[in-house]
Write a structure and sequence with these properties.
heterodimer, A: eight-stranded mixed sheet, B: two-stranded antiparallel ribbon, 1 helix
């Protein structure tokens, strides 16, 4: 009973020191997961800095869908490992993350879309991810509310069914990683904005903040949509463009769908939360911006498109709409590792519309990278140098929300 | 957020009439180094603040022009012909 009144703080405010082994910029899922896994590897002298509160950026604005049904031989194992970590994360972090593996359908309305889904099914099965192609009858069985659009334009011809996909309470993931990192010895400093870098030639030796310089053995930037502004402080341009992505949520309804649905042809994805609200997400805005304000135009688009799929929502009211910033990379794959010619500095970026799914494995991989100084096998294809050598990872077909940018 | 763009030909119109054409990024000479071409293809300033960029009036006069926009507020302060 006493446990109802939590005596242990989630994390403890501590005075900022002038030096740490590792300074992480960005207290979102990637920054805090990296800090947590670093403490597991024995590095405990860590500061995680954020210009706002914990999980204020893209982590808080994600629509919290988890899946691993990607298309490339590089992307699938990476997201498969992330989903595996998510499966036991509630136990590992001792925090109820409300993970619900409800399953997911990626709908195909044209021959070319179905071809793409078939390729994904084949690659997924080969690489140990449970997904397969199902036809309209099975789709209707799984989601009785769906309009198959038989005889209409863009009829639903098939779907990629991915049973282990699901949703999770995204804020709780951030808080739980924060608590885990704090209990492991890391310090979390919200409202401490990095304004520049301390440098010794090509080596980054720390960061500049409004409360003074902080020296560091290694600095990691995990700032998603703001990655270009961090790189600019080092005088480097990176292959990232920041696009806003908008989503909205309806008033709560009785449970009527228990799958996440996504349609690349209709530019919309949708699922019902445990509270009964229907989350509707869409494409990124077709121009870059750092503004968090949402638009009526996008709300109309999302509403029109979701009604093509679920006409039963037509009288339902929209309750909230919001925007998150996505750091879009040219090949829809992450960029993880050092920047050309800079020592003591790592970046984890290019998280676009798929970053939340990758939080655990992204953090674990960067922690391993920082400790060993060697690129972990799982992320060896995600280095920045791939743009110089032309070895891009084309993940576009598996990121339907993003494909408009 | 949605915003208005003053097309140099048609005047102020909603952003949905336009297509974004990328930040200004001059094409290198054919003899340029491979690193310069990598920059041209992939590296972007992605400025948080004032940025000069290409826009195309898709549902209007169908002309390309340059706009100066603050990416934090989406305020377009200046448009002109290239």
């Amino acid at each position: 009973m006493m446990q109802l009144f939590r005596k242990d703080r989630m994390w403890t405010p501590r005075p900022l020191k002038s030096r740490y082994d590792v300074v992480i910029i960005g207290a979102g899922v990637h920054g805090l997961a990296t800090a947590y896994y670093l403490t597991k590897l024995g590095i405990t002298d860590i500061a995680v800095l954020d210009k706002s509160y914990i999980g204020a950026g893209a982590s808080a604005r994600s629509t919290a869908i988890l899946r691993a049904n990607y298309i490339t031989a590089e992307g699938i194992p990476f997201f498969r490992e992330s989903l595996k970590l998510y499966e036991t994360l509630s136990q590992d972090l001792d925090f109820n993350l409300m993970f619900d593996q409800m399953g997911r359908l990626d709908l195909g309305h044209t021959d070319s879309a179905v071809y793409g889904l078939r390729v994904r099914a084949e690659f997924n099965q080969m690489l140990g991810v449970d997904s397969s192609i199902i036809g309209p009858d099975e789709i209707k069985d799984l989601v009785p509310a769906i309009n198959l659009r038989t005889g209409q334009t863009l009829p639903i011809m098939a779907a990629l069914y991915h049973p282990p996909a699901g949703t999770i309470r995204h804020d709780a993931v951030v808080w739980a990683y924060g608590r885990g990192a704090d209990h492991g010895g890391a310090q979390i400093h919200p409202f401490t904005e990095v304004t520049g870098f301390l440098r010794d030639g090509n080596r980054v030796t720390g960061v500049q903040t409004p409360v003074g310089p902080i020296h560091a053995g290694t600095v990691l930037s995990a700032t998603a949509g703001w990655s270009s502004t961090i790189a600019a402080m080092l005088g480097i341009k990176i292959p990232i463009v920041t696009h806003p992505l908008q989503a909205m949520v309806t008033e709560p309804l009785k449970p009527f769908i228990d799958k996440t649905l996504s349609s690349a042809n209709l530019h919309v994805y949708v699922y019902q939360t445990d509270r009964g609200e229907v989350v509707i997400g869409g494409g990124v805005d077709p121009y870059p911006s750092y503004s968090h304000r949402s638009t009526l135009h996008q709300m109309q688009d999302l509403a029109a498109h979701v009604l093509e799929m679920l006409p039963c929502l037509r009288e339902v009211k929209v309750m909230r709409q919001w925007t998150g910033l996505c750091d879009m990379s040219p090949d829809y794959a992450p960029i993880m590792g050092p920047l050309d010619g800079i020592e003591g500095f790592y970046m984890t970026a290019g998280w676009g519309t798929w970053g939340f799914k990758a939080g655990p494995i992204g953090g674990k991989s960067m922690a391993e990278f920082i400790v060993t100084g060697k690129t972990p096998d799982l992320i060896k294809h995600f280095g920045l140098d791939r743009f110089r050598t032309g070895r891009l990872v084309n993940e576009r077909a598996a990121a339907p929300a993003a494909a408009i940018h | 957020m949605a915003f208005l763009i003053p097309c140099p030909n048609c005047g102020e119109r909603g952003v949905t009439e336009f297509r974004f054409g990328g930040e200004v990024n001059p094409r290198p000479a054919p003899s340029a180094s491979s690193d310069e071409w990598t920059s041209y293809f992939y590296r972007r300033g992605n400025t948080s603040g004032l940025q000069t960029e290409w826009w195309y009036h898709r549902y209007g006069c169908r002309k390309w022009f340059l706009a100066k926009r603050d990416t934090t507020t989406n305020q377009v302060t200046e448009t002109r012909w290239p």
